[in-house]
Amino acid sequence: MKYLDEFRDRALARPLVAELRKSVTKPLRVMEICGSHTMAIFRNGLRSILPEGYTLISGPGCPVCVTSASHMDAFISMAERPGVRVAIFGDLFRVPGTHGSLANASSRGAKVDIVYSPMDALDLAIRHPEDLIVFLGVGFETTTPGIAATILAAKNRNVKNFTVFSTQKVMPPPLIALLDDPGLKIDGLLCPGHVSSIIGAGAYQPLVDKYHLACVVAGFETTDLLNGLILLARQVGKGEARVENTYQRVVNWEGNLRAARMVDEIFEPADMEWRGLGVIPGSGLAIRPKYADFNAEVRLDITLPEASEAKGCRCGEILKGMSIPTECPLFNTRCTPGNPIGPCMVSSEGTCAAYHKYGMD
Amino acid sequence: MCLAIPMRVTKIEGNPDDFTVSQIATVDADGISKEIRLDVVDRWPDLGDYVIVHAGFAIHTLEAAEAEANIRLLRELAACMPEELLVK
Ligand code: SF4
After folding, report:
1. Is the pTM of this model over 0.95?
2. Contact check, Cβ <8 Å, B80/A15
């Protein structure tokens, strides 16, 4: 397929692997922020060919994993209210809250629909005028513009029973929270591909300026990933720190301004709670008062419950890059994808799920 | 959720400036065709362009020139190796 096969070309990948070995002139620790990068790196077998001294740690970039336990509980209790039908992305279905998951609630009769797009949730609202539809917004910059456009479409079409519960999150603030923690020692960031398509490669410049961090934006195919890893090692080797973009075909410096305008029309910055990281100022997006009719938190008068994390689960530490799944005593014993204890094992992009799938122990 | 492959635009409805009518495209990849929204795509695509799609919305139209530059840089990076390794 066009724009795909050429970036999976083995003939091109082979010399890049050799170059990767040469590029490491001193030990380095790199955080891959995005859950899709975590999976792509495993899928391409790149972890096993990393040269000695090259350490990759996963960051807080799996949307389901960073959803706090109290948000999960609020989602579940909302799904159980009469007259409410929640619409979710499939990843969320089996994430455990304090007392069971949305899947459990659904088997007890709660109305839970898995949708592919927020627009499908709007269609549900039109098909079920008797229900109040709540779309659970769990995601980063890649999903927010579509949710904003859906709210605008609901307004234009005068749909009164469509709402969104926004836990939408934005990328740079949690990175700053992480980097301010002296316990985390990293030299560089492998910056997400598609989030960067929205926010632009320029969004990482403040991290370079403040933390002297090598930042490289990369795509998801074999040669994209190799390229990103090489450029990071080269920067760190030379003691440099700057933003490099190896995914020019999808990412530019400014980002997607059309999407930014759409998001800004509907959403405003808000403090947001993250699993493992706590409440980070300005790291989330709330629906503007002007669109309060579409805000589930207003319509249903939701207050976040006190929630506790699953006992023994280390997702919070893993999301901060402070621990790896194999250090969790529950990993592959009590906690498996079939019977997940924490969200990092549920989501297809979760670090624990990745370690399980690719047989790391 | 974040992994999206480039999909080719085969049909376009609506126009970039009017949000009151649906902005929809039909895209296909690997023989699978589906409808996606164009409300938030960075550049309004032409027929035959490739777009990156997330949760039913196109978020980016690929620029052929940039994809070629991408490949060229990769080849340069790999160029320290013997030429014959680079040909398919
Ligand atoms: S293996 Fe399971 S219990 Fe342990 S950190 Fe991962 S999700 Fe949590």
Report:
1. no
2. yes
